[in-house]
Design brief:
This is DUF1828 domain-containing protein. The protein folds into two domains: about 160 residues, Yope Regulator, Chain: A (2-Layer Sandwich), CATH 3.30.1460; about 120 residues, Trna Endonuclease, Chain: A, domain 1. Helices cover about 35% and strands about 25% of the residues. It is built from nine helices and eleven strands. A hairpin with a 5-residue loop joins strand 7 and strand 8.
């Protein structure tokens, strides 16, 4: 977008078509003037039209699957000068789109940090899942619309990183949870089994009563679920000698059940040699770690 096209529309500016302030009166009453000025500022590819209590701004930008990126404009109804500020928002459509493209509805702390970093870069607020920015009096509406649109494009592009919820990201979530709840732990603990094979256990968690070894079972594939459970079963069997003695360790199989990939047989396979808990129930995981 050229610099010459940008600064034609301003929040709080009087319009030649109606003579009224942009911020004065209901939003829909000033819609024709606002939309015309937006077209002058951003070009004919940006289409503005009333939709309920919002003005919808249809942008020429697309989500990676071809869906059109729509933005919305509404007046702020609170504050010392009600109606003097406009908000440009995607109404949460970008995050909803991103959620539909990924296997897991949950976002890790690192994924949230990426989204927040994009918002910071483009001067956009991430609030209740929405990308939005205020357009204050004297500020170019075109510039604010472009900021929010560009943030939506950048966030949508994260789908490539989010399309599979990798085992490592789940382990990171578990590590964050253990840190938050002040459980001392060691990651990727190498232990020798009775067979002489070295196993790498995801977590060695130490609590006053009894320490635990934790394997995280996570996959996005139902076909791979059984082989993962069998691998963990083999590990617990080979490390079973560590569960006896004065410093006996507890074996915990933590299933990432955010995806419906596990069969009841997968849980039963490892429950004879370990305590089975599900990541969807952190309280049960905490209870298992604290068990004597």
């Amino acid at each position: 977008m050229s610099e010459e096209l940008m600064p034609t529309t301003f929040c709080g500016q009087r319009h030649s078509s109606g003579g009224a302030k942009l911020a004065a009166g209901p939003l829909l009453m000033m819609a024709p003037s606002f939309c015309e000025d937006l077209r002058q500022g951003l070009g004919a590819l940006f289409v503005c039209s009333p939709q309920g209590r919002y003005l919808r701004i249809r942008t020429p930008y697309l989500y990676p699957d071809g869906d059109v990126i729509d933005l919305f404009c509404h007046q702020e109804a609170v504050g010392p000068l009600p109606g003097e500020e406009l908000t440009i928002t995607d109404l949460g459509e970008t995050i909803r789109w991103l959620r539909l493209q990924t296997l897991s509805p949950k976002r890790s702390a690192k994924q949230r940090a990426l989204i927040e970093d994009i918002c910071l870069t483009h001067g956009v607020e991430f609030y209740k899942g929405m990308l939005q920015a205020r357009c204050r009096p004297g500020e170019s509406v075109a510039a604010v619309v472009l900021r929010v649109a560009q943030a939506a494009i950048r966030v949508a592009d994260l789908w490539l990183a989010f399309r599979t919820r990798s085992v490592e990201s789940v382990k990171d979530e578990v590590a964050d949870w253990l840190t938050k709840h002040q459980f001392p732990f060691e990651r990727e603990k190498k232990l020798a089994g009775r067979s002489g094979r070295t196993w790498v256990v995801d977590f060695h968690v130490r609590v006053p009563a009894r320490s635990s070894l934790v394997y995280v079972l996570s996959t996005g594939s139902r076909a791979a679920a059984r082989s993962i459970a069998e691998h963990v079963l083999a590990a617990w069997y080979d490390l079973n000698h560590l569960t006896v003695g004065p410093e006996a360790l507890q074996c915990v199989s933590l299933f990432d059940d955010t995806l419906d990939v596990w069969n009841p047989e997968d849980f039963r396979l490892v429950e004879s040699l370990s305590t089975v808990v599900k990541w969807s129930d952190p309280a049960e995981f905490q209870k298992a770690l604290l068990a004597a």
